[in-house]
Design brief:
Largest sheet: none
Strand content: under 5%
Number of helices: 4
Structural class: mainly alpha
Helix content: 55-70%
Radius of gyration: 29 Å
Distance between the termini: 58 Å
Order of helices and strands: HHHH
């Protein structure tokens, strides 16, 4: 319930702030839009053809990548050891890729 009280309090405070600023600030000057729309319409044509329509076949089931199955196994079975092993391996892979990228970037710059 504290979360609902927070959203209720903050939401009502923001709404009161909005109404207060609407009352306090001057109204913007209304300009005539008609003068801008009196110009003739410009029609642009092109000889370029649109690309062919892309047809997405949704009748076949989608094959999920193997990491998706691993993550689903972690969340459905609450296999915390397996999930932490996946997180450790992914962290190491990201670390290695980042170090190689930074090394190549410095090598290319220097």
């Amino acid at each position: 319930m504290p979360l609902m009280r927070y959203f209720g309090f903050v939401g009502s405070a923001l709404l009161l702030l909005l109404f207060g600023l609407d009352w306090y600030l001057p109204q913007p000057a209304v300009e005539s839009v008609r003068a801008v729309t009196d110009r003739p319409a410009i029609r642009i044509s092109s000889i370029e053809k649109l690309p062919e329509r892309v047809v997405i076949d949704t009748s076949n089931p989608i094959a999920a990548a193997p990491p998706v199955h691993d993550v689903l196994r972690f969340f459905t079975n609450l296999d915390v050891g397996y999930g932490s092993a996946i997180a450790t391996v992914m962290t190491l892979i990201i670390l290695v890729v980042s170090v190689v990228f930074l090394w190549l970037q410095r090598r290319h710059a220097g």
